[in-house]
Amino acid sequence: MAFVLVAPEMVTAAASDLANIGSAINTANTAVAAPTAELLAAGTDEVSEAIASLFSGHALDYQSLGARMTAFHDQFVAALTAGGGLYSSAEAAAATPLQDLLNVVNAPTQALLGRPLIGDGADGTAPGQAGGAGGLLYGNGGNGAAGTNPGVAGGAGGAAGLIGNGGAGGIGGAGGSGGAGGTGGWLYGNGGAGGAGGAGAPGLVSFNGSNGGNGGNGGAAGWWGTGGAGGAGGEGGAAGGDPAGIAYGSTGGVGGNGGSGGNGGWFAGNAGAGGNGGVGGDGNAADSGLVGGAGGVGGAGGAAGLFGDGGAGGQGGDGAVSDALAASHGGTGGDGGRSGWLSGNAGAGGAGGAGGSTNGIGNFAGNGGAGGNGGAAGLFGNGAAGGAGGAGGASQTFTGAGGAGGTGGAGGWLYGNGGAGGAGGVGGAGIGTGGLGSNGGNGGTGGIGGLIGNGGAGGAGGAGSASGPSGYSGGNGGNGGNGGAAQLIGAGGGGGVAGVGGAGGTGAAAGVTGSAGASGVGGRLYSGNGIPDIFGRPLIGDGADGAPGTGQAGGDGGWLYGNGGNGGSGAAGQAGGAGGAAGLIGNGGAGGTGGSGAAGGNGGAGGWLFGNGGNGGTGGDAVAGLPGLNGGNGGNGGAGGAAGWWGHGGIGGQGGTGGAAGGFANTAPSTNGLLGGNGGNGGDGGAGGWLFGDAGAGGQGGTGGAANDPLVGGSTGGSGGAGGNGGTAGLFGAGGAGGTGGTAGAGIAVGSNGGHGGQGGYGGWLGGSGGAGGTGGTGGSGDIYAGAGGTGGSGGAARLFGTGGTGGAGGVGGASDFQFAGSGGSGGTGGAAGWLIGNGGSGGQGGLAGTADPVTGLFGGTGGAGGAGGAAGWLYGAGGSGGAGGAGTASVYPGLSGGNGGNGGNGGAAQVIGNGGSGGTAGTGGAGGPDDPPNNIPAGTDGQDGAGGAGGSGGLVFGDSGG
């Protein structure tokens, strides 16, 4: 049977075009009729008159033929027009009863549930209006409307029904959050993309730039489909300043955080990628704006269901460039999402944003952001690599330090290799012949392998940058990350290569080369080096402790019963010994403390049947720099040991303290050690028992080295070490809490950033809550430019049943005695709930801004953004609440603006039944400086309040959206 497909509107358009063509031909024929039909003879002879008569006769024949063709053309156009009308009438006649029938079918569900049975949801029209839900049986959700007006969040995308795609979230108005993407169809359909956050408005005269809005979270898929991508964070607004130089808009706005990617289909489908963090707002030298805004945090990648790939974490936003005084720091990369429970690849961690550079008269570049952690695999699969740390910003005076690399994800619980740790960022380059060398970032720790699988390699430490001016030492290289441990069968990951110290200026020493990371512990049954000698340990009895000062490993406990021996401490520069493993029943030995600047030993594994893993050893404290040399980096803490069948994982070791800067050499005042060493990273917590037991907590990051004393030439304190990640539970048990980030060392001129908190560990496969994320470290104090607080760690996700972990709070910004107080760190993202049932974790609170000295200080700091709440379980559960934004602090100098408050985090989404999480409250801006009537200086403006977070979407079947 043949079918003819006709589009009436196309037929009507064709008829109109043909009529226009006919009119044009008729006009041309009329114009040439008289000249051609009445052609004059060239002469009076008979031949000329005959030729003229011949051509005139042809012209008359042409006009006669043209008239007949015009009549035919008009008849054809009339027939085509009539045919199009008939088709339109037939279509309308057929559509009316079908539409009436569809209206009858849709009426009950429309009245009862507010949505049709079949049909697409309406797009939002008013500013910030949500898209309508699609039909319960079939239909796509409508797109949310853009916020349009300043501060108005974009509308959420509508949810699909049984089959269909979720609507896209609307773009936020200036400084407003993007709308969340709608949920995909229960049976089939993709989640909608989250809307981009609105760009912050530039500051008016004497006002700071506004913060960029957070990107909306991507919508989750249902049974089968792809999760929506998270929206990008909005760019921060430029500082306003004052051309007269009387009242100052001190800072550009902070870039908005990227939205989290939506979860993939709970049976099959890839998860959505997290959105990129927004770029910070520029400082504006022309209008006396002074400091660029910090980059936003990248959004976390979504998690897959049974089969599928986890979403990649978003890249952290770059810190803003400033032509005036100082640039700002890059944002932290988002964590990668978990792969499918049964199979799939985990999502890679996002790269940290680059630190802002300075131009013109600017002196202080920003530090690079830390890389995001790689996602963990499910039952089978490899963990993903951690993101690379961002490069430090370039400057003609003080360059920025490189960011720390992210931790690699854990391999599949049964089979899979751990992901590699991310490389540390390189220190910022000097501009021209200027620029003091800065430290490279520490490499990330490799992920733990599965029961069968190798541990991931540790990330390489970033290279320190060279110093341009003569007499000043180069920046220190970052420490290599520790290799991940294997569990039962597999080789431990190799330690990361140490970063090379930067070249010193003329007559000065090069920066200190970092310490190489320690190799991970091999599998207890087979580690690639042959089956262990069964006669090398007793049947019953404890293993011997390693001798102090030797770095000797502890002996293994008895095969049937006995604890592993403790590892011996290391000599100067030597790693601590690993703790011995238990046999069938017993606890693993603790790792030894590292020698000066060296890594602590890893804890020993607990007994196969019953026993706890040993605690990781503390990293060694670095020695202070000699005259003319920078302080050394603290050693990384050792990883906690894994439990066996039943038991708790060991706690990760604390990172060592960085060494203080050496300052001026007594015999050669032209050689200056300016930098304190970085604190070591905390060790990761050990895995909980395969059947039952809680995982170990991550170790605290080490404190950065102080810049020493201004009289001896120190300048910049070292960055705080990153907190270790919490361990992963087995079948039943809670994930380990992430370690607290280390406090940055006190600076004389410049303070460095606090370490970011560790990520909470995953809860048990069948039951258990995710671990809480670690709190970010406090930023270092600085007389001119204080450091930012560290980013809080993401909460760990639950697996089948359980509550997601709470995101860690952002660290407090550093205090300043004279000029710029540090910004608060962003709160961590709440962990996702159990795949089937559970509540999402709450986002971490944004860190409070640092304070300026009440007598000599100038500018207040900007509060950190709150973290996004975690998504609820697919069948039942509430989304997590967004974290509150941190408060900005007051400026004390006459005429200066107070610091902006941080944005609240977006609430997590519910899935089928449950309420969406409430958005986090906005942080309040700090008070402006007082007036100074004798000098005609008006009072400074108060800092702007942040934008409140958008509420998460309610369940498809039942539940309210968050407020």
From TrEMBL:
The protein, known as: PE-PGRS family protein
Region (Disordered): 912-963
Pfam families: PE, PGRS
Regions of compositional bias (Gly residues) in chain numbering: 912-929, 943-963
InterPro entries: PE-PGRS_N, PGRS_rpt, PPE_sf
Domain annotation PE: ranges: 4-94
Coiled-coil ranges from the UniProt annotation: none
